[in-house]
Amino acid sequence: MRNFTFIFLSYLLMGVCEPLMASEDQLDYLKKIEKATFNGFSALIDSETEFPVDIGRIVGDGIKIDYHNDYSSKTSPTNIGFGFLHLILAQQRGVLTEKEALSRGIVLFSKLKQLETYRGFLFNWYYVSGKKGKIPQVTLSQFVSSLDNGILDICLAITSQMYSGTLFASEIEAYLSDKDYTFFFQEKDNQFRLNLGWDTREKRYSDSDYLILNTEARMVLLYAILKENLSEAIWKDQSRLVREYETKENERIKVVAPWGGSLYETLLADEFIAGDEKAPNAFRVNAINMIRIHKDRGKKLSRQGIWGFSNGEVPNKNRYEMAGVPEIAYNQFPSEFVTIYSTFLALKYDLPGSVQNLRQIQQLNSNVFNPNYGFSDSINPVTKEINRNILALDKGMELLAISNLLSVMNGQKTISNYFWDYLTQKGWAQKAATFLAEEQDHLSFQSIRKDVKEEALVQSSNGITIDLLREHKKVDVFQESGRALFNYEIITPKDIASYLDIYYDVHRRYSYGGVYIIPNLMEGPNYKQLDFQIRGFSNKGFPKLLKLELKSNGQYLYLKHIKVTPAWQKISISFPDPIYQNFDIAFVIENQNAERFPKGKVRIRHLKLIS
């Protein structure tokens, strides 16, 4: 009879899931993978600074770090944060002694404090030369990222808790206390928002904010609100747009959408803040639905059906790209490659399915796994091509997820346990737990728990129709300053349909912009439907996809990606819920959806809002 180990976790409350179950064979496999993953991350650590170098390449039986290339031989605040976690996990799992881990942590912290900073925060990238006595210098950009600094400081908070009572912990706490996260918050549309960061060269904030709850940034948002005692409205104002995915078997799965459709965005934060335990009927259900969607997407792409689409190095190319399941994302990126760390993050939600996926990935191309250093970064499910690089960020996430899981099996503390101990010590735990638990009562998370299929709303023949190209309060463009260029023209002939021409230029990578319309709404009615026709121009160029957004006070009410062709298409959209408040309608064009024609023209006509 086969022996099984049963793992009962605190998130078994409310009957959300079955207990995790692993056979001895699966446990042996996970332990082998964990050992190789530790070795892989360790091979990226620069011996002079203890900083994890961003990219290494598996060459034969070794890892090659190109210290002459500042693109690969660089480090970031997030990489350094994972450097601290590596030491904690290595001690916890018996790879290092406490003395070894602590002494190396002290060296890492001392080197960290020598880096150039801006208002106490680290820049995005520092060049690691590999030379003795050389302090890493800022490289590639002068950007100060709120997300990267937040991840680093959360890792430092966890480290101080691990070594609580030591001089090392006291020094970390003093370092954290000196930072003021209000620097990253801006007021816009009567909301305080967590900005992506500050460009010291251009002396301005990013054009973008973290306004979506289901991203990795929610852990930084939570930490910043607690640390600076900011208003809970900042958390509550996060967008929780629900999107629906249809499987090969015509099953419909709802999720609170991530920004780019990746598993990384949904799963990483809870390795730290344990939302899946504190609010299982919100974050755990959403995570499981996301994994189900990624599994189905894998089946649609290839016969092998491997899954896990997240940001990473493109197979057979030295280039980092976004990736995800486009149907359920705010911003669509292709799901053309599988990043292995995605499966590691899924382990605690579906252990048997995740182990099976890792094995199928190895069967697809045996070179994807090196017994000394673990998995390389990515694989193409169709061509079987792999990327032979390993990344400190991605290897760090693999290590975090698998070691957390095996620590639970051994009855040891996880990284999230140390984080909550830190919150308790600071007097922040109750407030944090309330934020997370209340998500279970949010209508968005309630809706993803419904098993019934909702019928589409039917247009009323007696509804009120508004011609938005004639009846509007305002029309204007929005664009990334210096990166995108947009213009528009509205033509309203007397006897034929009005039309809107959008001229765009999004040749810069990841640039975007668009045109927004503020309708002139009548009092009273609820609006149920939006109709319009759209076409591109072959002689000018046009994007393959255009994104339609409806927002109210910065919050998403509706989002849809629309295919653009040279022929007129009629688009009729029935909203999942009638819209009654003031809102604006935006037509957005993004670089990743206009790669063939980064400059061009789109025409829209018969733009009507129907009650």
Can you characterise this structure?
It is built from 17 helices and 36 strands. By secondary structure, it is an alpha+beta fold. The strands form twelve sheets. Strands 26, 28, 29, 31, 34 and 36 form a six-stranded antiparallel β-sheet that branches. The protein has a five-stranded antiparallel β-sheet with strand order 27-30-35-32-33, with no helix packed on it. Strands 4-3-25 form a three-stranded antiparallel β-sheet. Strand 18 (312-313) and strand 19 form a beta hairpin. Helix 2 (77-92) runs parallel beside helix 14 and helix 4 packs antiparallel against helix 5 (167-177). Mean pLDDT is 90; it is low at 1-19 and 451-462.
Topology:
Blueprint: E1 4-7, E2 20-23, H1 24-43, E3 55-59, E4 62-64, E5 74-75, H2 77-92, H3 98-112, E6 117-118, E7 121-122, E8 126-127, E9 137-138, E10 143-145, H4 146-162, H5 167-177, E11 185-188, E12 191-195, E13 197-199, E14 204-205, E15 209-210, H6 218-228, H7 233-236, E16 242-246, E17 252-256, H8 263-267, H9 269-273, H10 275-278, H11 280-301, E18 312-313, E19 320-321, E20 338-339, H12 341-346, H13 351-364, E21 369-370, E22 374-375, E23 378-379, E24 386-387, E25 389-391, H14 392-409, H15 415-426, H16 429-437, H17 443-448, E26 465-467, E27 472-479, E28 485-491, E29 499-505, E30 512-519, E31 527-536, E32 545-552, E33 555-563, E34 569-579, E35 584-590, E36 599-610
Antiparallel strand pairs: 1-2, 3-4, 3-25, 5-8, 6-7, 8-9, 10-13, 11-12, 12-15, 13-14, 16-17, 18-19, 20-23, 21-22, 23-24, 26-36, 27-30, 28-29, 29-36, 30-35, 31-34, 31-36, 32-33, 32-35
Helix pairs in contact: 1-14, 2-3, 2-4, 2-14, 4-5, 4-6, 4-15
